Amino acid sequence: MVNDSCPKQEDNGDDRLSNLPEHILLTIIDRLDIREAARTSVLSGRWRHLPAMLSRLVINVWDFLDPFNCNNDEIVRGSKAVVKVTKSILGRRDLSRNTIQFLCMTFILREDDPISIGHAVAHAMATQKVEIAEFTIFCDDDDLVIYGRRFMLFFDACPNAFGGLTRLNLENLRFGESDIPNVLNTCKRLNHLRLFYCDSGSCTVLKVEHAQLSELAIVNCSFERVELNSFPKLIRIIFEGWISFEDPLSFGDVLLLDTVSLTNVSLSWHKMIKFGFNQNV
């Protein structure tokens, strides 16, 4: 027998979690990686648009890969997933309500996937304010020449995306002699640059300048010499793993330089490092 005196719970189609205020739901989703955050959109109608309202977007290809089975097919699948999530979330944003405070993209330089990501990011930058934008770009093997050319094709296809970046991290790329200066010339908002295992061929001199860059890291890059001609806002530099017989690094206009970190394995032909600055420093 049913007890009619027992109060019935009203079925409103949503659970209690879904009835929380929007800002609390966004705080919950913000603690998830982007893959799990995207999955919450299927919970109910209330959740459908929440991932696209996040002010911090960290989309990392490693969140989509199986670390115990990271073969070529898995990398292809993960890269496609990154493209799909990026286009979905950036394409569904409410332009009237939300600024993107932090947009961090980590992806692998494969075929046309980066160009799709770049166009989606460029559209977001054109239609709303993006305060901090970061690209971290990996390669899935060590053919520096092929991936250097592939990166420059990506760069040439997406100048607006690179023009809006504030942080850029590059690995395992061989550039043409003028490629890095051209990248810096386009990335006018850049304040952080990290080059890891990058070069421009053997015995090449990298001559660069930038008006906004405040942090620079050059790690295990095979440049004969790096000349920092004009970096008026540079505060910190990390320089590790050079092979040069001569002085590997020179400074021009670096009036605000505060921290210099030099790390290398000492070999018999290396000279003693001596610091010398011009009278304007």
Description of the structure:
With 281 residues, the protein is α/β, with parallel strands linked by helices. The chain folds into 2 domains: 18-53; 54-263. It has helices spanning 22-30, 34-39, 72-91, 113-127, 144-157, 159-163, 179-186, and strands at 56-60, 100-108, 130-138, 167-174, 192-199, 205-209, 215-219, 225-230, 236-240, 249-253, 259-263. The strands form 2 sheets. It has an 8-stranded parallel β-sheet. β1 (56-60), α3 (72-91) and β2 (100-108) form a beta-alpha-beta unit. 28% of the residues are buried.
Spell out the blueprint of helices and strands.
Layout: H1 22-30, H2 34-39, E1 56-60, H3 72-91, E2 100-108, H4 113-127, E3 130-138, H5 144-157, H6 159-163, E4 167-174, H7 179-186, E5 192-199, E6 205-209, E7 215-219, E8 225-230, E9 236-240, E10 249-253, E11 259-263
Parallel strand pairs: 1-2, 2-3, 3-4, 4-5, 5-7, 6-8, 7-9, 8-10, 9-11
Helix pairs in contact: 3-4
